[in-house]
Amino acid sequence: MSTTNTEFLAAPLADPDAFADGPPLELFAELRDSEPVAWTPEPEPQSGFWSVTRHADIVAVSRDAATFSSARGVSLEDLEDDQLEHRTSLIDTDPPSHTAMRKVMAGEFLPKVINGYESFLRGIAARTVEQALELGTFDYVEHISSQIPVRVLSRMMSVPDEDRDKLTAWGDRLVGNTDPEFADALLGSEESEQYRLLPFRSAAALEVFEYGRELQAERRARPTGDLVTKMVEAEVNGEKLTQRELDNYFLLLALAGQETTRQALTLAGLTFIQNPSALARLQEQPELLSGAALDELLRWGAPVNHMRRTATVDTMIGDHPVKAGDKICIWYPSGNRDERAIERPNELDLDRTSVDLLTFGKGGPHFCMGSFLARMEFRVTLEEFVARVDTISAAGEAERLRSNFVNGIKRMPVTLTSR
User: Fold this and answer.
1) What is the pTM of this model?
2) How confident is the model at residue 414 (pLDDT cuts 50, 70, 90)?
3) In terms of Cα–Cα distance, which of 172, 248, 162 is closest to 209?
4) From CA 262, how far away is CA 267, in angstroms rounded?
5) I need a surface site. Which of 13, 83, 269, 338 has the fewest CB within 10 A?
6) Angle CA(386)–CA(392)–CA(398) in degrees, nearest 5?
7) Is residue 271 part of a domain?
């Protein structure tokens, strides 16, 4: 089962081009009904994987780290031992090492800490929306959704303002490793072999490492109490982090701290274009954003398509057997539309009283550490948006990132009018 074969219903899920218009929701619905744990072949030398599409099964896999491990990586790329040695970061580990590494930063993402950023966040969100309104017609990704999370991240890491664009560009190159526009070398190409020991097989990782090391040296000399200082001062099991651990931890923070929220904000803008009644409802009742309406928007436009796990033993997912060593891929957009868990899942309903959301993971040790920050960035930005914007309309086609990993939009021309 190592070559792509169209006789397998789930075969398109291995192909980034199947996500050219966003997650293939009709295919996910068919899989949930007929083949909820479906074999998905990949081109050689990759080994293929099981696609898990039902909400309950995704939750079960997410919560059982002992049976469904992250230690072989969370991307679909089959990694050899030397690649794992060089590329492993926090998200590529299992307890107890994951728990110990998570504690390095977990305290900085607690609500009591993150709430201290809200006034700063509200100020930059308000200014960002006002500046966009002055433009009238512009790229939503560049002028709104890229601006907010990178500014907050830069403050948390004490990154100079003039370096923010670097962080954004590095993020594009890393997660865009299957997109010809962004990739240093397309994943799976012969050219990418020279980068096989780097995260995402991207030369951008080397640049991020170098930048992180410069910041780390500065913090050792002059601690500031920021995230980089916490990182260089941290001890795990009585030992300082190695340089390789620092490299990969810094890259993870620099990427995850902006990329997913940026895409979530972009997808919310697209949702308002396609569902103008949703924007109108929030303009009338902005307080809905403090409740389940926020999760409903995150359910509707989840920024991450999947995570990978590896079975550690022969086991069952639902009533389907999988073998030790098999790759398992859990598809969040599918689980977020599963009628078995969510009533009327194909309706955007801002009046839902609760949403059984999978967008940040679902329990277990890998639940998104930055979820509270991401929610606050999402909520505050949308509150400032609906308070100032009367209408949003498309001024051109949204350009999708070529990826089956990130539900990404590279550019989205829009026209805004003010209230």
Assistant:
1) 0.96
2) very high
3) 248
4) 9
5) 83
6) 125
7) yes
Taking 3-state DSSP, the helix, strand and coil percentages for the chain, each rounded to the nearest 5, stand at 50, 15, 35
The total of structural domains in the chain comes to 1
Phi/psi for 88 (5° steps) reads: -65, 130
Query: How high is the pLDDT of residue 2?
Result: 37
Residue 1 lies in a domain: no
The answer to the question of residue 5 being in a domain is no
Range of the domain at 103: 11-418
Q: Where are the alpha helices (DSSP H) in 36-110?
A: 55-63, 81-87, 97-106
Residue from 70, 73, 86, 81 nearest 242 by CA: 86
- For 132, list phi and psi in degrees, rounded to 5: -65, -40
Helix (H, G, I), strand (E, B) or coil at 174: helix
**Residue 3: its pLDDT value, please?**
40
Task: Dump pLDDT digits (tens) for 29-53.
Answer: 999 999 999 999 999 899 999 999 9
**Counting Cβ atoms within 10 Å, is residue 233 exposed (0-12), middle (13-18) or buried (19+)?**
middle
pLDDT at 259: 93
CB under 8 Å, gap of 24 or more: what pairs does 313-321 form? Answer: 313/67, 315/67, 317/37, 317/50, 317/52, 317/57, 317/60, 317/61, 318/36, 318/37, 318/54, 318/56, 318/57, 318/60, 320/36, 320/37, 320/50
CATH number at residue 138: 1.10.630.10
